[in-house]
Protein 1
Amino acid sequence: MRSRYTAFAIGDAGYLLRSWHPSTRPTSLDLDPEARWLRLDILTKVGGGPFDAEGVVEFEAIHRDTNGRGVLHERSRFVREHGHWYYVDGDLS
């Protein structure tokens, strides 16, 4: 989760796509160049440990863009395959 947040913060769309599960991965990703990601707060996590195959992370990501300050609140699902974690999907609230 933290590595994906960092990828958003530095605009690394390639990493975001590579860490996205193939079953839900978009063909391309357009990041907002005006968005400045300021902070990531992990609220809860379920699973995701060294012996788990799945995990859920609920987080808030604080950002600033042309509309001002904003908060992205998401509950993200991840799966581990062949030793790598992949983002599957998330529910925004």
Protein 2
Amino acid sequence: MTPISVIFLVISAVVVWGGLLGSVGFLMAKPEVDAYPEGDIDE
């Protein structure tokens, strides 16, 4: 692999895993929705 491909591999892995860890951290901090938006009731 060329050095540029390794750099892009590392950058993409950091973006993907960083997003996953950020999402998990957010859900652990605030797992429940405080209020749902008003909407129509299906009948």
Protein 3
Amino acid sequence: MSDTAPLDPRLLSILVCPVTKGPLVFNAQTNELISEKAGLAFPIVDGIPVMLPDEARRIEG
């Protein structure tokens, strides 16, 4: 399976940032869920978001 499997829109509608409990924005270009408030990008692997802060990439914002 590919690392860029599509994310179910229903899943996106219920997920929140595990750090801030705030909204997430899907970035199709990087295949990540972005928490602007936390400054973190959570990867999506095989269509499954990896919502572990230790696995997230820090982003500049």
Protein 4
Amino acid sequence: MFDHISIGVKDLERARRFYDAALAPLGYERLSNSDTMIGYGPETVGLWVMQVEQPVVADMRSGLHFCFVAPDEAAVDAFHAAAVASGGTDNGEPGVRPDYGRFYYAAFIIDPDGYRLEAYFHKGEL
């Protein structure tokens, strides 16, 4: 459905360090790099991170979050660990989420700008 999403941040260098570390375990890398914008994806950019004057104000009650597909459970675990070590805040440790499905393995993070992120792996049959 979506080709890409873009988010605005106040400090692009801080976001670069965070997203480089957090997305690497999922198989996503920085594919585009400039003074005002960076882009991540597996082969083409799917996430643009831009330095802007007025980023959207984070709202934990908005329901907005971004979910990244992980290749396996270990990648979800590594995403969570790398994100926390790189300035993110834990918003749900790795584990099965029975409310989402008995095979739904996920971890949740809040990035340094307040965006809610998830990494997920579907570990069984649908």
